[in-house]
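Run log // design_07
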């Protein structure tokens, strides 16, 4: 069974950094694009960033552009979302997705 498992969320102060990761198991995602989305309390799911199968193309929502960086390690089947200059409005559950498979999410809380 193909699975995606996120980790690396947590509590951080405004202006801080985190790097959630997304590990794929039960299959290979090396040829498929991956993306990160987030859902804040009381709000819908928001697309955050995506990366192509070869890692050569990345894209970002305007709300995170210049602060977040998506990357992937195809050898280990892991994707990362480096988050910097975090703001309270970045507080959400962050999910990774590849095709029809989505992980369970990791909580990111930005608060002083």
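design_07 sequence
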């Amino acid at each position: 069974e193909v699975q995606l498992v996120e980790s690396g969320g947590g509590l951080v102060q405004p202006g801080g950094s985190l790097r959630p990761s997304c590990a794929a198991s039960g299959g290979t995602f090396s040829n498929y694009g991956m993306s990160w989305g987030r859902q804040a309390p009381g709000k819908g799911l928001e697309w955050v960033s995506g990366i192509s199968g070869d890692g050569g193309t990345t894209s970002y929502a305007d709300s995170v552009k210049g602060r977040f960086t998506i990357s992937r390690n195809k050898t280990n089947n892991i994707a990362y979302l480096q988050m910097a200059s975090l703001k309270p409005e970045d507080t959400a559950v962050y999910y990774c997705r590849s095709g029809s498979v989505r992980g369970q999410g990791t909580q990111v809380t930005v608060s002083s």
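The mean pLDDT is 94.
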